[in-house]
Structures are given as C-alpha cells and as structure tokens.
C-alpha cells in the first residue's frame, strides 16, 4: 500500500471500522516510529494517524447508516488499512477505506464538535492528498523528519 517512494515499510495493519480502533491505530503508529524520530515528531505522526483513521471510520459509518439492514448482513465487515513508510527523511502515512468519496477540507465553525480533521492534517503535514487504488480510497500525508532525528545522524554533539 505504501507507494514505491517509501523504501521502508514501517507498518501495514488492518483495523475494524469502529471508533474503538482509533486508539489501537495510534499505538501501532507510535510503536512503528519509535526510535525513528524525536518524540515531538512522533506525536505529530500519531495525531495525523488519529485524524485520518477517524475520518475513514466516519465515512464508513455514514455509508453503513444509509445501507439497508439486509445488505449489511451479507457484506464483509469493513476495515481501515493503515500504512506507514519511510524514505529520504520523510514518513508517509496512508489510510485506505472502501468509500470512494473524495475527502474535503471543511470550514468548521467555532462551536462545531468536528470538521477540523483534514484542516489539521494540512497544517501539520508537509503535504497531503488522496487517490484510488484497487477499489479503495487512500488518503495520505507526509511528515518531514527533523535533521537531528536518529535516522539523519545527530551531528550537533561532540564526535
């Protein structure tokens, strides 16, 4: 799932499309990047994973709410796939789901409880986008690792 640009796959895991999966996805992402970057960058990655996985689960939940009950019983339980890859000082996060509707950045009003997810993804990542592969929508974003991160070699201290 992580594109050819990512030379090292850090994580590829399916999660049930249920809100309870979001903490598990965050933990898996944190474990995958531990030692790859500083804790602040790891927390940004975890936050981006949380936003993208939450959005995917909400899209699936909204679609299921509009599906006749008989049709739900015959379908396989939907999953969200999280993939993390690393190449050239960049971590790429990809979240795939079966809902092909294009994601859109919304303008949330001050007291709205939601609607800020992709806006925050755009602010915290160096770039983001989406595509369709193998009949699944993939929303992705990239985070640049800092120069002092372990994978870049910290040259700020004594040799």
The string of secondary-structure elements, in order, is EHHHEEHEE
Strand order of the largest sheet: 1-2-3-5-4
Q: Structural class of the secondary structure composition?
A: alpha+beta
The count of β-strands is: 5
Largest sheet, if any?
Answer: 5 strands, antiparallel
- The poorly predicted ranges are 152-159
Percent of sequence in beta strands: 25-35%
Helix content: 25-40%
Average pLDDT confidence is 85
**Cα-to-Cα separation, first versus last residue:** 39 Å
Tell me the radius of gyration.
Answer: 17 Å
Name the overall outline: globular
Number of helices: 4
What's the layout of helices and strands?
Layout: E1 8-16, H1 21-33, H2 39-65, H3 69-74, E2 79-87, E3 90-97, H4 117-124, E4 127-133, E5 136-144
Helix pairs in contact: 1-2, 2-4
Question: How would you characterize the overall build of this protein?
Answer:
With 159 residues, this protein is an alpha+beta fold. It is built from 4 helices and 5 strands. The protein has helices at residues 21-33, 39-65, 69-74, 117-124, and strands at residues 8-16, 79-87, 90-97, 127-133, 136-144. It has a 5-stranded antiparallel β-sheet with strand order 1-2-3-5-4, covered by helices on one side. Strand 4 (127-133) and strand 5 form a beta hairpin. Helix 1 (21-33) runs antiparallel to helix 2 (39-65) and helix 2 (39-65) runs antiparallel to helix 4. The longest helix is centred in the first third of the chain and has 27 residues, at 39-65. Mean pLDDT is 85; it is low at 152-159.
């Amino acid at each position: 799932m992580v594109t050819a640009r990512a030379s090292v796959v850090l994580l590829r895991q399916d999660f049930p499309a249920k809100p309870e999966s979001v903490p598990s996805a965050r933990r898996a992402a944190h474990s995958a990047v531990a030692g790859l970057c500083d804790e602040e960058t790891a927390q940004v990655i975890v936050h981006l994973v949380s936003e993208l996985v939450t959005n995917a689960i909400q899209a699936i939940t909204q679609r299921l709410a509009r599906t006749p009950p008989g049709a739900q019983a015959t379908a396989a339980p939907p999953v969200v796939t999280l993939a993390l890859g690393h190449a050239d000082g960049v971590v790429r996060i990809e979240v795939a789901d079966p809902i092909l509707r294009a994601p859109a950045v919304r303008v949330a009003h001050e007291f709205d409880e939601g609607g800020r997810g992709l806006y925050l993804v755009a602010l915290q990542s160096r770039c983001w986008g989406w595509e369709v592969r193998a009949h699944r929508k993939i929303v992705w974003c990239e985070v640049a690792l800092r120069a002092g991160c372990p994978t870049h070699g910290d040259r700020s201290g004594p040799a």
